[in-house]
Structure formats: C-alpha cells, structure tokens
Amino acid sequence: MFDARLFRESAESVTAQLEHQLADASIRGLELIDPDILDRAARGLMTPERDRIAAFDEKRLAAIVDLYVRTGIQVHSPGYLGRQFSGVVPLAGIVDFVGSVVNQPSSFYEAGQLPNVAERIMAEELNRFIGWEPESFAMVTTSGGSLANLTALLAARNKRFPDYWSQGGGALAGRSRPAIAVGADVHYSVSRAAGVMGIGDEQLVRLPLDREQRICLDRARGALEDAERRGLEVFCLVASAGTTSVGAFDPIDGLADLAREKGLWLHVDGAHGASLLVSDELRGKLAGIAKADSLTWDAHKMMFVPAPCTLLFYRDRRDAPGAFRQQASYVFDDKPDAYTALDSGDKNFECTKRPMIMPLWALWSIHGRALFAEKIEYLCRLTADIHTILLDEPDFEPLHRPEANILCFRHLPAGLAESDVHRLQLDIRNRLKRQGNFFISKVDIDGVAALRVVLMNHRITTEHFRMLLGEIRRAGYDLRHRANGRETGSDSE
Ligand SMILES: Cc1ncc(COP(=O)(O)O)c(C=O)c1O
Fold it and tell me: Which of 11, 74, 249, 312 has the smallest number of CB atoms closer than 10 Å to its CB?
C-alpha cells in the first residue's frame, strides 16, 4: 500500500478520470439518489475480506472515484448555479492532493514549515487590499468561516470582559449582559457562535435593514441605544460583506464610525464577499474595511480553492491571541523563538489543521492576482446581466439589484394566487434538483420563498440562464396543472 510506483500509477488513472469530468461541459446539476440505493452501491464497492489485508484492486479504486464524482453537485458544469462553494481551479486540487500525501498540519511551524511561511506571505499579499499597517496586523487560517466568526467574537468578548475566560459568567457580576449587534440577515454561524459563547438569542441586537437588505445606518444608532436601555452591553458589531441570502454589503464605513464612537469591536463577516477586495472594479463594496477590527475571508468561496480555506484577519495583532487563553506545554512555548513565533495553535481553535493556504498560495504564485480578479468580475457582471434579463420577463420578478454574484427572484406565472407563491417556488426548486440539469437554491425573503442563484462558475453564460428560465417555466406549468399538484421531498439548506 505504500509502494511509490503503485501510488504513481493509481494517481495517473484517477487524474485521467478527473480529466474526463473536467472536460465535460454538458449541463448537469446533481444526480439526486435515494440514500438507500447509494448506500447499497457504496457497500457493493467494499472488499468482502475481513481478516487479511486485501490486495490493491484498481477496478475498485476506479469505481469508488467514479461514484464519488458522479454523485456530487457538478461544480464545473454550467448547470451549477446554486451554492457558494467554488467550481475550483483544478490546479488548486493538485496542490491540495500533495498536502494530503505529505501531511503537514499547519498550526505549528515545525509540522508545516512552508504552509506557515505561505500563510505569512498570503496575509501580506491580501492585506494590501485591506489596508492595515503591515507591521501590526495578524492573520490565522481557520477551518471555515463559521469557525473564524466564532474566533473573532471570542477575541472581542475577551477584550471587553478580560476575566471572562478565567471566571466565566462570574466576571459579569454587577455589569450589564454582554450583547452582539448584527444585521437582521446575518449568517447563522454568527448567532450560533453567540450561542456557543453563552450569549442568548435575546442578547443579539438585530439591526434593521434598508430596502437593499443592508444594515440601515440611520436606524442602527437608535437600535444600539435601545439595547443599552434594555440592560445590554453591546461589545461587538458584526457587518456582513456579502450576506448569504442576497449578497448585500453592509455600509462598513459608516458602521465603523458608529462602532468607534460607541467603543464597539467591528467584525466584518466577509466569508462570501471579502474576495471582491482583490478586484479594482469591485473593491469599493467594502469601503471602510481598514477601520474594522477583524475580517473573515473564505477563499473557498470566491477564490476558487477547495474547502475549507478561511483567513481570519485582525487589524491589531495583539488581539489575535485574545480568543483563547491557555497553557499547554506540549505545544505552546512560553518564550517563542524564530520558529515557534510562526505557530498559530494558540490563536486558532484547531490543534491539527489542514495546510489550507497551500492551494491558494500556489495559484497566487503561479497566476497572480488577475486570475481571481477576472473571474470574480466576470461572475458579478454576469449576475448583473441576468438581472436585466429577468426585468424583461413578465412572469419573473427579481427581488433585488445584485451587488455581487447572488440573485434571488420568483417565478410568478399569470393567474398564480398570492397564497401559492411560496409553495410554487419551493416545488420548482425541488423539481429542478430532481431533474438534475440545473442546481439552484432557495431562500425565504420577507417570509416568502424565492429562487436563488449563486454564480460561482465562469462556464455559465446568459444563454444557460435563459435555458434555466425555460426549465423553471416548464416545471411551474407542470406543477400547477397536475391533479394533486404538490411536490414533496427534502431540501438540504
Ligand atoms: C456570510 C457568511 N458567513 C459565514 C459563512 C459560513 O462559512 P463556512 O461555510 O465557511 O463555515 C457563510 C457560508 O455560506 C456565509 O455566507
């Protein structure tokens, strides 16, 4: 099993399978399979040998890879318009594959020397677009944006309540209850992080949104003051740079001024949209980012590398160790030397952490910034174009002007009763998912379901979008004219 030649031969045949997959530009979304049938297919690939090590079986490996590839959302096809994970740049997968073989976890310099240096380089490269003092900012990688949000909120909480880590809730005696201000449409990972930290739902101050689904600056101050009157001590304000549902960008500049005036930590959840910073055309969406205290940036979304690859930035590097305050002599040194100074194990939740920076750094090294900027710009332009297409279709209603590459809309065929709008969108989405040509998602907007496309794949053109509209129309027609017209089926949000 450890034979080097066998390794090369199997890698060659697997890459040939992947080449076939990547070269296929046909329109495919997801082949949705009954879990029991898939379970049987997967079990059918397992060796019956129980006692001895079974010999390598090339056919079995090929069948495992084939099943793996075939049953996934087809992220490289123009039929994939549904979610925020990327149709990755294939080369990034090669570097990820190297990481899986050489196995260099990256929380500690000695275990992953190049990944740790690459983290430092990418931090400097990307900070050029954020604009913090090169000498005083910090960056750690985390396994996903959800974990980055939790980590930043912990750092913010521990800064405001310095005894919280040692005393827990006892540190709050005689003080108001800690609270976090968020936009009403914040990603669930932020409210989940609050829950993990013992900050209840009632301690989340939900700031009202404007018509574009962004935090309404004019009403934010009043909402904060109202929270104070209710006995809450807001210590952090979370702005979204690209909300999940519609891709709206909160007004960071104005919120940063408000946060500074009120003494709040400003965390920007840029899991989706921070990547726009690398584009000269689009950077303005995050105007004011240099005034934030921390920023979550998912490279596995708009920088087209395999998940997870998240970068959590702090404006002030002294804040980075604030999230976790622990001793562990088997990994942490009291007096770091030139090597252990690069360790991040004390600043990120994970002990063993994938060297997730490597695919990103390799792409950046080989192709440079323009690879990312051009792809992001294409996707955002395409989203604006499909918005224009929708405006001309009487039976479709776009629900917002897209700010990035996410667009929500509804199909409203003539004669549809208002009470049926919600159900029809859900049924259409499920029908499309089962048909398998296009993969789109759905979200409730103001309590009513909408269809949602996220353009993550540069193979998509406006022609594909018109084909999608045709498929939606046909699905809508069938659903409305069927005798007992209700689709059923689960939907995984
Ligand atoms: C705005 C926003 N924040 C956070 C997250 C969570 O990121 P991750 O899926 O990397 O944990 C997402 C994921 O879609 C997101 O859209």
Answer: 11
The residue whose CB lies within 8 Å of the most ligand 1 atoms, and thus the one to mutate among 244, 276, 492, is 244
pTM above 0.90, yes or no: yes
Position 489 scores a pLDDT of 47
Is 212 strand, coil or helix?
A: coil
Q: What is the Cα–Cα distance from 45 to 194, expressed in whole angstroms? A: 43
Provide the Cα torsion 245, 248, 252, 255; round to 10°.
Answer: -70
pLDDT for the residue numbered 486? 54
Q: Does the C-beta of 272 come closer than 6 Å to ligand 1? A: yes
In a domain, 60, yes or no: no
Ligand 1 atom nearest 310 alpha carbon: 10
Domain boundary among 367, 402, 419: 367
pLDDT at 330: 80
The helix or strand, by DSSP H or E, that contains position 408, with its residue range, turns out to be strand 406-411
Q: Whose CA is nearest to atom 8 of ligand 1?
A: 145
Which atom of ligand 1 is closest in space to residue 298's alpha carbon? 10
Measured from the Cα of 270, ligand 1's closest atom is 1
* 273 and 303 Cβ atoms separated by less than 8 Å: no
Residues 355, 414 within the same domain: no
Residue 202, domain extent? 104-367
Pocket lining: 213 vs ligand 1, CB cutoff 6 Å: no
Which ligand 1 atom is nearest residue 186's CA?
1
Asked whether residue 194 is domain-assigned, the answer is yes
42 lies in a domain? no
Identify whether residues 358 and 421 lie together within a single domain. no
- What tokens does 459 get? 């193979």
Mean of the pLDDT values across residues 447-452? 98
- Ligand 1 atom nearest to 83, measured from its CA: 14
Q: Could you tell me the CATH number of the domain that includes residue 139?
A: 3.40.640.10
Mean pLDDT for the stretch of residues 143-150: 98
Q: How far is the CA of 189 from the centre of ligand 1 (A)?
A: 7
**pLDDT for position 372:** 98
Residue 328 confidence class, pLDDT cut points 50, 70, 90: confident
Ligand 1 in contact with 298 (CB < 6 A)? yes
**pLDDT at 331 > cutoff 90:** no
Q: Is the CB of 145 under 6 A from ligand 1?
A: yes
Return the CATH number at 490.
Answer: 3.90.1150.170
Q: How far is the CA of 85 from the centre of ligand 1 (A)?
A: 10
Phi/psi zone of residue 179: left (φ > 0), alpha (ψ -120 to 50 degrees), beta?
A: beta
Final residue in a domain of this structure, among 333, 367, 401: 367
- pLDDT tens, residue by residue, 78-101: 999 999 998 899 999 999 999 999
User: How many structural domains does the chain have?
Assistant: 2
| Per-residue b or e along 10-48, where b marks 16 or more CB atoms closer than 10 Å to that residue's CB | beeebeeeeeebeeeeebbbbebeeeeeeeeeeeeeeee
